[in-house]
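Recap quiz, item 2
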Amino acid sequence: MTAKFKFILYSGLLLVASAGRSALAGVFDFMYPREESNHASHTDFTFDLINWITVVSFIGIIVVMVYFAVRYRRKDPHQRAESQVSHSTSLELVWSVPPIIAVAAIFWYGFSGFVELRTPPANCYTINVEAYQFGWQFTHPNGLVETNVLQVPAGEPVKLVMQSRDTIHSLYIPAFRVKQDVLRGRFSMLWFMPLHPTDGADFDVPTGDKLDEFARKELARQVEKELVGNKQKVVESVVNSERDKRFDDLTKEASETAAKQFEEQSKAKPKPEKPLTKDELQAAALLKKKQGLAKDYQYFLAQERGLILFCAELCGEGHSLMMARVVVHTPGWRPPAVEIPTDPVERGAFYFKTKGCIACHDNAAMAAVGYPQMITQGIWGKDEKLKDGRTIKIEGDEGVAYLHKSIMEPAADVVATAPIPMPQQQVTEDEAKYIIEYFKTLKFKGN
Amino acid sequence: MTTTTTTTTAGLYDSEGQEKNYLNHSKGLWSWLTTLDHKRIGVMYMICVLSAFLLGGIFALLVRTEHLTGGETIMSAETYNRVFTLHGAVMVFLFIIPGIPAALGNFVMPIMLGTLDVVFPRLNLMSWYLWMTGGVFFVASLAFGGIDTGWTFYTPYSTTYSPYGPAIICALSGAFILGFSSILTGVNFLATMHMLRAKGMSWFQMPLFCWSLYATAIMQILATPVLAITLLLLIAERTLSIGIFDPSLGGDPVLFQHFFWFYSHPAVYIMILPAMGVVSDVIAVYSHKHIFGYKFIAFSSVAIALLGFLVWGHHLFVSGQSALLGTIFSLITFSIAIPTAIKVFNWLATMYKGSIDLKCAMLYAMSFIWVFSIGGLTGLHCAAIATDVHLHDTYFVVAHFHYVMVGGTVFGFLAGLHHWWPKIFGKMYDEFWGLVAWALVFIGFNLTFFPQFFMGAQGMPRRYWHYEPQFQAYHVASTIGAYMQGLGFVLLAGVLLYSLFAGKKAPRNPWGGTTLEWQTTSPPPLENFPHDEPPIVGDPYDFHAIEYKEELEGYVLVAAPAAHDAERSIVEEIVEGAEADSYGSRGN
């Protein structure tokens, strides 16, 4: 065989193979969600492979079966079978071979994809996830906490480190082809690299100055139209109703703050040459409102367009409503800076909420098994019984010292009713001080 | 042997000329409730498991009706969780697991072996009473509000978070008791096949249905105790707050999943193997052809039974079990595909050059190949880990296991029911209306579950009361299919029940079967075979030995079936040497 002939043969084979691949590849695409992560193409390729094996084997079996049933159909009760052959060891060994080859190939593709799913790269953008009945809380590295909206940058590996506050949940993003159960008392992990930014996720909202009269009217019209549309959706869907309510709250809040800010600004100004008329004031407030609406509305749309995230493990009556949206931002995106309150008490409350304390200390199910509930039961002024039999009055310097030790060294001085001691927490000395300041405002409400 | 087999009548009629059989030898409810006759116990099981099937079916139709729209259609999310749980639990524990072995196996297996009864008749009756007690507990859990955990009882939801504590304890106790019913049946069948085969019947002259019951019995005995212990631990945690599974008490919820699937995966084979046995026999009989690869089929049943113990971890690919463990479980799971594929090829080879009669039972057996092929092949999607991560807990899995369990067990059960109905009740049903019912059930079944593959692949999670609008078309198609199936089952019940009152009297062997039950009368006498006609043992699939007789509208044995001694292997010689003394110690 000459080298030239070899070249022609191999390139011909390659051409046929690639043509076959591209002709066959798209057939089952209607079955899959959009491919939105790095894992999707491998999973879908494996899926395609198994689908073809399935379809070909199934059609083969059925065609043979139906052909035999027709060809050898008994027309007369006396008709005997044409043959009574009862076995053929060689045939039986031979037809065991194709299934072995097929399952070996499928195993290999399934396995190699799984290895990738379970091996996150070193430089992941890590988000902490807490699942609870019935919602998702996502904490970004900079402290931004969001509920039921997962914001991630495109084009970079994202790792989710997950824990449950109560029963087992399962985080499932179909478009990413990832799923992992989320358990209480242990961390589970999954990773993915989103491929495409969500439409409108990083929309640049025009500010009031840049809007002309026409644009303002147009914007207002659109927003109102959408609002009416949303009202209709409320009737249609239970899930949407919750999101719409949130949207309504947002718009209400935005307009109120806008009006308030504007009023304050106008008050603070050193005597305007001509005081604003009531109409002008209203017009300005309306503009602010529309700007706020426009911004919120963009956010709302991005969420609507965002990829769906399900809970895939039965967790109670709200299971099917335990959904979140994944909003993928343009590459390099980072969450907006979180404003940490300056007031010590507010700052303590902020840490109490964002450091995960509320998972056990503001949770009815945890209250039932005996973990202290700072918000609902109060803490300051309480007589706390400990496992070693002592009772500590949480008050004054002694109380501060006790609380500090309990936060920083959870295994020490465990309260009598707690089934197991608190795990070690990621709280600094400084943060603990603010949390205690917050606790001082939560007066014990009695047993 | 001459053609005179059917002419002997001594001992078959009472003084009034009425035929004596197991149904009329004694009368009254009490005679049934205290019977030790395996045939009557089989019939009682049949009535009970079919009632459970009806109950589970009603729950299924409620679930499908709810899914006509996203959100609330006819019930709240809370009610929905309870309804689908009861559908699953009733179908699995009360119908599918005991269905074929306890109802059909009880009736047919001892006659197939040419013996008088099972080896422990009292134990057999006791297992029926245990089934009834377990069933009562299940129904009683409804009175406590019903369970909402899914039939899998996953912790810590079932131990801590579900608001239906008393109902859960009640249902767990029910499942615990049902487990013992299953174990006792398994022990009984195993001992019967070892001890009571008719004189001269070797292991490899047992019909394949018996082989499949043998493999099933092994699993029932070895796996069910694990479930029983697990359920007890669950009850202990729920009532006494002992921390075994709940992480807030220091337990491990994944441990429960391991325990649970250590039983429940073999249980899948407890459900499917007897159906495969029925199908092996039915296809041979309606093709009038020797089963192809008898030993391959027999040993593949045993291979599936043994490998079935080593694959439970494929239910836990995304649960938090280690990646290495996941990989090993995936590999072993794929190895099970091979004996399964071999069985399908063997059935097709049995039909080759046969004389195929498309009666109802054969249509159900062929439907079994259809649905089981789809169910088995889509198992490949679920066994490959990368695709399973996407498909786990979606409707794809729901469709897959309904194709295996409903397709497998129900179609196998119906094939057996139609096949042995004339033997059990001595009446012929109407083939035409039976065929109409088959068409409704078969088309309805596929319409119900085929769309669910697409839904699941697109990401529709299972156990969802509410769903996104994009899935509605699939759900509506599925619901229409479910109604169609419901209609089919009602018609089927009508056809069979009508035959009891108006059906033609069945001949001994209407289909041309060659296993021993077709040598006796329909229905059989109390002692299974007429006194003066001991069963003639030989190759269970020797179709040379039978011939059609117009005047009987059935087949008769015209020669002794071949002995097939030439094929005996060394292993067989050894096994039989050890068993030689026990042959026929009670049978005939």
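The domain at 34-582 of chain B is CATH 1.20.210.10 (Cytochrome C Oxidase; Chain A).
Chain B has a mean pLDDT of 89.
End of item.
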